[in-house]
Amino acid sequence: QIIVSMMLLLPLLSNGGVVPFESALATGKVKYEVQYIPKDERCMALTLTNTSGEPVDVQVETGRIFPAVSNDVQPFVVTRMAVVHLGSKERKQVWMHARCGNSGAHGPDEKTKFKGTVMGAPEMVATLEMLNAQRVTDEHLYQTIVWHYTNGHSVSTVYTPRVHPVILNNLRAELSRHETVPSNWYISNYKPAAGGNDMEFSGQLESI
Question: Does the global pTM surpass 0.85?
Answer without folding.
Answer: no
